[in-house]
Amino acid sequence: MVVCVIALVVFGILSIFSATHRAIAREAFDCVFRKMTLRPCNTGLDKRLKMLVSMKVMKHNEGAGKFVHTNFEAISFVFMLLMIGSIVFSGIGIYNFWAYGNCNGQNSSELCLLNPETYSNTNPLAWLFPPSPSDVLPVSSEGLPMRGTTGAPVQIIEVGCFSCPFTKSTEPLVDEVMAKYDGKVALYFKYFPLPKHEYSLESSEAAECARDQNKFWEYKELLFTRQLECAAQPNAGELHSLHAEFAEELGLDTEKFSVCMNTGKYAPYIEAQKQESITAGIYGTPTFFINGKVLVAPKTIEEFSAVIDAELAAQ
To answer: Where are the alpha helices (DSSP H) in the chain?
Structure first.
């Protein structure tokens, strides 16, 4: 029974993509149905699978093959428990995503592949088939705001969204990296306003208008520090007033800042950056490129240091 249940799930999924597995899936279904209705399973599927798996393992290691053959039922039971656990936790994640907008539960700041932290039309099945950092293509740093040392041996591009809590939570790590590798690192910031984060595009435009007056990094810090306040604004007009308040707080020419915002001067530029990030396959924010090496939502300074130290050692 256990073997047939596992076969039903595995070959049932495989049969969606391959017709060659549908016969086995039907046979497994018949076996499970018979067992559930208190009738004997007469297909012999469990015995055939036991022999097949044992022989496959035996080709690589005779002892392991004999062990699998002897303990096949127990091993199958363990795999069924793991499968049930996986289904349960996946179900919990889907429920949390439906109820709270985060698969890790209410108020969680952990990265969740179910979260709309990217553009869903690029890969609607990303939560079933998670992307990998190795699939992400490089992006250009040309024309981006930069802090650190010009011509530094390590070039870091941060791709982030001003309304994204994950990007905000990584900012202390970014400051730690800049302090630890002072003189060896240049940091660039690339806008990636996400569609389901309130006012992400407007905040990107405000940061670029502040950059016009050489206050990008200070404005960036304010946007993250007061991120929740920005998201809570009832409409774009109130948000504009808050952005203007930030500009005044930093000593900017507020009239020039307001003209910049009202004309949408940098909307096409930010849209171009967004499209480049989509084309590159970026699937979560923040994403960092360290001399081309990709880090997605790093949580510790050690993750940064492992890549940076290797790059410095190679030069």
So the answer is: 2-17, 22-36, 45-60, 62-70, 72-100, 165-180, 200-211, 216-225, 227-231, 236-249, 254-262, 267-280, 301-313
